[in-house]
Each structure stands twice: as C-alpha cells, then as structure tokens.
Amino acid sequence: MSVYNKVGALATRAVGEFPSSNDLRLQNLVESQLEITKTKNCLNALSAKFALYRPSPLPLT
C-alpha cells in the first residue's frame, strides 16, 4: 500500500466515511421508507387524477 493510500485510508476513517453496520441498516431503512413514500404519493396522485375523470355510464339497452 502506497503512502498516499495509507494517508487516504486514515483520513477516511478519521472522518467516519466507513459506516458501521447499524449506519448501513438505518440508511437502508430510510431509503426504503423514501421509496414507499414516493410510491404512495404517486398512487395518490393517480387516484386523484382518475377520480376526476369519470366516464358517463353506458346506456342500458
């Protein structure tokens, strides 16, 4: 390992850029919740859009 790589690795560890497993779990949870929220918002928007569009019922013959 070169001196540059050693210094970079030490600096990286010093500023906490190597997340712990708990940090990764929390990050994954937050990202999952964000995706769920985006999906719910999209579904709500689609529901609202189609609630406004109500085709007239077909006449009974």
From TrEMBL:
Q: What is this protein called?
A: Uncharacterized protein
Q: Which domain of life is it from?
A: Eukaryota
